[in-house]
Design a protein that fits this description.
The chain is built from two helices and two strands, in the order E-H-E-H. A two-stranded parallel ribbon has the order 1-2.
Amino acid sequence: MIVSSAEVAYLSACSTSEPALDVADEALHITAAFQRADYQHVIGTLWPLHDGTAAFTFEALAFTEWNPGKSNP
């Protein structure tokens, strides 16, 4: 799957960048798959996180992206 106009993928599920145990020396995870599909920027996690933390991070990222030069209220 190639997505030519994709810019950002925000993967808020737990451990989306954690490699499988049987291939720990290779970058085989869902985050790498999005990069391979030509997303310019991919944000994933290496550890479990709470839903509230994921939502807060996305809101801060989205505000910064859509309101450059302004501080997050």
